[in-house]
Amino acid sequence: MSKWNLKDNNIYELKYWNLVSDELSHIEYEDIIHYDTVKILKIDDIEAELLLDGNFIKKHQCNCAHWAIKEPCEHILCMVSLIRAKKIIIKEVHFSNDNARSHKRLDLKNILNDISTDELISFIRDYAKKNSNFNHHMMTHFAYKLSSVDNDDKFESLFFKILNQPKDKFNYFTPSSVRQLNKLFITFGEQLKILCSLNDYQQVYSLLKISIFNFNKSLPNIKKEYLEQVFSNFQKLLENFHFDKSLTLSPTLIDLYQIEFIDWIKKRTFINKGLSIKLIYILISLNSKEILVQLIQVLLNDILSIDNLNYKESYGAQLLIVSYINDNSDNSIHFHCKTMEKSSKIAMDYLIDNNYYPSAMSLLKSLENTGINIDDQLLKIHILENDKPNIIKLSKSIFEKTLNTKYLEILDRVMTKSNFNKWKSQFIEKLHEDENWEKIIEIHVVLNEIDELKSFLFHQADVNLWIDHIPKVKQYFLENDYLLLSNFIIEFLNNHLGKKASDKIKALLNKLKTANNEKNIQKINDMILEKYLDRPSITKMNEINFKIDI
Which region, left, alpha or beta, applies to residue 435 given φ > 0 means left and ψ of -120 to 50 means alpha? Predict the structure, then answer.
């Protein structure tokens, strides 16, 4: 398929083509995600991807069962069909009669749909000769496509034009030059993301190396008021780097990364701006034992030794990460990190998210006697390993200590229904003993136990609890509930006199009232007025226009 042109009718002869019209007929062109030449289609758990070079299909892949390297599946063919139709169908101008015709609107979209590729290329070539800024923007946006030229030269040339523009009398860049530099970092960030997705790490290395070099070079010529924005855009560029651990980089390429980044990390200006944090994670992702050993020394001797270091928790976390991945944790490392709870949490999250489970467990074990809370990280590992007995045991322990209902939800999903209900009932009994009504209500709400919540509120007979929590149950009120509530209100008013009591009942009825239950609320209101006609504070309720809460 990689040799096929989108205009080639032979694509209709494939054996899965009939499935496109049958099972994927609901998919439209707008459902495709477009990243320049990369096109992606996501359907439930299926993800199909096309890489186009003009009208030619350069590469395709899909995670469905039908796809093979030389045999596209129905999802790939669906994308081909939609893109093909979009590219080659020419919209005609229809004439209603001999004297009248409908005109298209003159806009860029219609022009691009109607002109040919040759006409467009010719216009761009001529316009680029006349407008140097347009020329530069074109080269910047599509630089990554030119894989046949020297990567360093092409990326360097785009910086050269900006950095060598005339400066002001103090040798600072003009605002226009700074804007162009920011745009270049933004565009290169987008290109870096695409190149990483294509696993084109030769171009990735060149783009990063040239960007870092020229970022360093440009700093002395940028006024202070523009620095933060330049730093921010450069940081975003770095954040687009992603390394596929399943691939193997050549030793030469790893050395180039290492030399360039280690040299850059040692520049303290960037350390206290936090820009080197991403670079260290890049080096960690390369998964080289030699690099990890050097990183430990750089972090210990060149970064964490800095007085008044910014982002200290992040750098401390990185020291823990590289140490435990490399199984090289010693007392000096814990001297820097053992009192840094935030560092430990960042490190644990990284190790777990990147599947370094043995390293994560070693770090947890070393933190057991430090007073740092490791429960959440340990629970996360148990969940990822689907270790149900330990999930239940630890979730119960954390919930009983913190009363955080997120652990209750975990238990509800993992335990059998009978065991969970038995344990929950015993725990709610303890809350009753402690008179922790709010937590009991929260448990019923989190577990969506509406009947239990109504029963608890009626049994508790506390008007303040009703006022606070009736919005949670009012849409589930049945006829019998209104009768029970009437009895509750009568009991309350029998035992409480005065304006304060009537105001509470008024607030309760206002919170209960919806567009669907006005009649029931009016019945309760009429019953109150009739029964307590001799109370001025109650009769005034008849003058109140209840606000309906929906």
Answer: left
